[in-house]
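Researcher: Structure prediction, please.
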Amino acid sequence: MVEVDDFDRVSGGVFAIEELVLLLVVLLGAVFAVYRKPQKPQTVKTAKTADTAKT
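Model: Predicted structure follows.
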């Protein structure tokens, strides 16, 4: 049982590192998507101006 616990700890540490790497990749991808597509903030601004125009 002790050997299994040690193995679980090691594998858990590896999985934690892999999860951190995946999170970094996802965050970098989101940042690149935001910088490559500045159209989203513009659409939000137009939507806000449309709302203010309606009111």
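Model: The mean pLDDT is 69.
Researcher: Thanks, that helps.
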